[in-house]
Amino acid sequence: MRFEPIGILRSPYTDKFGIPRQPGLVTAAEGRIELFPPYARREAFKGLEGFSHVWVIFLFHQDCVTAGWRPTVRPPRLGGRESVGVFASRAPYRPNPIGISAVEHLGLIDGKRGLSLRIRGMDMLDGTPVLDIKPYVPYADALPQAASGFATPPEMTGVDVEFSAAAMQRLRALDPAGERGLVELIKQVLAQDPRPGYMDRYPQRTDFGLSLYELNIRWRLKDGRIEVTRVETD
């Protein structure tokens, strides 16, 4: 079997650190799937406007492809301490490095790179190869009675995220009209606590950084609150 990507994902996440651990957790994250010929055709999406969400089937790339698969993994939801079988997880180190995410779609757009599908709430790295797009069908795909095992809801959602005066000034200069939604994006990403689950072993470490778009976000965890201290550009 041989699969050919139909497009490539453009997202705010330019580094693995900071990517939400599931789709839909950071609704301020918007991106697009840039479609390759011959798939960049509007008729291929006829009828999709009636659906609010889509499944994106994609390839884990970068080091996930070369690292190979592992029979057991340590999920972040278990603090990186307890192992489970790879087929009981969504870890990227799989026999076939395929991922699937349900995201909101915002319609087709024409741009410099041709036809793209705008999406929101992704949990994928910028540059991810996309294999397929399918409509999300609530009556079949949503199973509210299903058990979720160890995948409990994130504990830190809603944690206070504050900005230093210097960081806020820099963000306003970078996004004066607020069109990129940088402040809200940073708030939502950090509220998920992107640190590895084992970081509670190192309470002395309080300063961290992550990349979004071309930005390096420097932040500090103190007394259960997060403060964005600096915003740097590459």
From TrEMBL:
Superkingdom of the source species: Bacteria
Keywords carried by this UniProt record: Methyltransferase, S-adenosyl-L-methionine, Transferase
InterPro entries the record matches: TrmO-like_N, TrmO_C, UPF0066_cons_site, YaeB-like, YaeB-like_sf, YaeB_N_sf
One of the protein's GO biological processes: methylation
Positions of the TsaA-like domain: 3-145
Record's keyword annotation contains RNA-binding: no
GO molecular function: methyltransferase activity
Keyword Transferase set for record: yes
Pfam families the record matches: TrmO_C, TrmO_N
Family according to the record: Belongs to the tRNA methyltransferase O family.
Protein name per its UniProtKB record: tRNA (N6-threonylcarbamoyladenosine(37)-N6)-methyltransferase TrmO
Species this chain originates from: Thiorhodococcus minor
